[in-house]
Amino acid sequence: MKTVDITFPNGKQGTYPVGVTVREVLASQTAAASEVVVAAKVDKHLVDLSHVIEKDASVEPVYADSLEGIGILRHSTSHVMAQAVQDIFTGAQVAIGPSIEDGFYYDFEYAETFTPEDLEKIEKRMAEIIAADYPFARQDVSREEAADRFQQKGETYKVELIRDLPDDVKTVSLYTQGGYVDLCRGPHIPSTGVIKAFKLLNVAGAYWRGDERNKMLQRIYGTGFASQEALDEYLRLLEEARKRDHRRLGRELDLFQVNDEAGPGLVIFHPKGMLLRTIIEDWERKEHLKRGYDIVMGPQILKVDLWKKSGHFDHYRENMYFTEVEGQSYGIKPMNCLSHMLIYKSKIRSYRDLPLRYFELGTVHRHEKTGVLHGLLRVRQFTQDDAHILCAPEQLNSEIKAITDFVNYAMGIFGFEYEVELSTRPENSIGSDEDWDRATSALQQALKDTGIPYDINEGDGAFYGPKIDFKLKDALKRKWQCATIQCDFTLPDKFDLSYIGADGEKHRPVMLHRVILGAIERFMGVLIEHYAGAFPLWLAPVQAIVLTVTDAQIPYGEKVRKDLLEAGIRCEGDFRNEKLGFKVREAQMQKVPYMLVVGDREMAEARISPRQRDGKNLGALAIDEFITLVRDKCGRFE
Ligand SMILES: [Zn+2]
Ligand SMILES: [Zn+2]
């Protein structure tokens, strides 16, 4: 009998007859029995458990709750959904059905629009298919035969997919479960019964092959998990994210609007949104001055020749806007670097002047496609907390360390956890090996010195230098890019920057681009969702609201408000002739940290009765006592 030698991930080996299936091989390894195996890797290639082994190979189980396993599970669920749709809706044609980051979809052509009730029907039918535990059976056939079979069934999208395969593809694989046949590379779960937890989410329009000249299909999105608990947790987070959507809260809390009349991707800040933004910007200015930065500001448009000199015109033109003044072309800045270069160059610099740290709340414009614009998160005009640091090579380490300390401090102040990634030299890059080594080790050493754990992204740096990216984690465990530190070897060269060293010779300074919060607009969007609009006291645009019980307290209520405003507390008053309970509810909806109730007793005693937005009453306080309380709570931040 001929045999094959199989190697397992733990280094063990075994001998099996030729023609053994992956399932049989894995079954002989009892250690894996407790977890659900959905597929396997043979010599690193993903295959079905029914895959037959003909030669020596390494075999590795793929578990349902692994990244690859969950993708196979979700994709297989899309086949089950396609079967259910065709069982219910006669004439529905299938297009493609991949797994995606958080689930799967399948595109259908069908005369009528699928409704939420239809999704329920489809889910019900899917549950029956799953209960029947149909095996996923693979069959390899010639492409002609496959095309014929789908042609007969009127599945024109599948026929087109087969027709467009490269010429050297002679056979394709078909997968059948419970009478439903699909064209697919696989692999799949062994049988439909492996699916334990799934949910259909919504329907959206999608052009065939993503091309708007093609027919619009209906895309049904769904998701699946290895366990019901994991699915429930995902659905809970999804609902929570919907409630926290910053576009919805932006409207409800009257923070901002994005108006088509003004233009897509252009944010209009309302008074409360602008107040929130101003608090953040004031914090930025104060913290940068504390850390030895100089605040600067460049113009919004700069001559095109300057953008040619910097390389932006060659490499970044597609994302830029241009304008003309008196026959001269100008580029509207997509980045803030250039003015800072010109400030450096305005004088002869000595090593004693370094490091120079130029900080700008720099408003930039970048052309983003309409389709990717999203509330405050993806916009066409935004303001970065941008700085450029010019230093001597030997200062690089301490400068980077100071920035990572700054980021760490900022994340703590705004209430975020974060992760760090170091990205190293990509294949197509400029600069000498020496420059890259020095900069990369400076970045790495700074991370080691501060003791922050980090991942390395090999080859993911910018073409002009390595970088550190900070990703903050919000209350829903979502990650958002915020701070970056980038080394740049090209701009100091292109602008011929120099300083006179202690040796009396000219030297080239090293340059860092860095942001701490990133784009203020985007950071605000993340902040709104992270806190679900209930900002901490120091950030809340309205910190307190005076609520009168009857009209008799209006003059006293106005005095309270005036005293608080003078003390620097952001305070509003609701003096309307409405019931107190109604005013409290409204203030709670607006997520105001303190509601200050003033009735006859408070007025007689010159006091206020603060009530927190969580419902807790603080009892009657003198106005001064309340001012001290607010100052104590905000002191650490302001
Ligand atoms: Zn498939
Ligand atoms: Zn820059």
Fold and architecture overview:
- By secondary structure, the protein is of the alpha+beta class.
- It folds into 5 domains: 3-63, Ubiquitin-like (UB roll), CATH 3.10.20.30; 68-242, 2-Layer Sandwich (Threonyl-tRNA Synthetase, Chain A, domain 2), CATH 3.30.980.10; 256-298 and 336-530, BirA Bifunctional Protein, domain 2 (2-Layer Sandwich), CATH 3.30.930.10; 300-333, no CATH class; 544-634, 3-Layer(aba) Sandwich (Rossmann fold), CATH 3.40.50.
- 35% of the residues are buried.
- The protein binds zinc ion (ZN) (2 copies).
- One zinc ion is lined by residues 335-337, 388, 513.
The share of residues in helices is 25-40%
Structural class: alpha+beta
What's the name of the CATH homologous superfamily of the largest domain? Bira Bifunctional Protein, Domain 2
Give a count of the beta strands, DSSP E runs of length 2 or more: 35
CATH topology of the largest domain: BirA Bifunctional Protein, domain 2
The first-level CATH class of the largest domain is given as Alpha Beta
Largest sheet: 8 strands, mixed
Gross CATH architecture of the largest domain: 2-Layer Sandwich
Ions, cofactors and other ligands present here are:
zinc ion
Please give the domain count. 5
Inertia-based shape: globular
* Radius of gyration, whole Å: 31 Å
Number of helices: 19
Proportion of beta-strand residues: 25-35%
Spans of at least 5 consecutive residues whose pLDDT stays below 50 are none
Average pLDDT, to the nearest integer?
94
**N-C termini distance:** 80 Å
Order of the strands making up the biggest sheet: 18-22-23-30-27-26-24-25
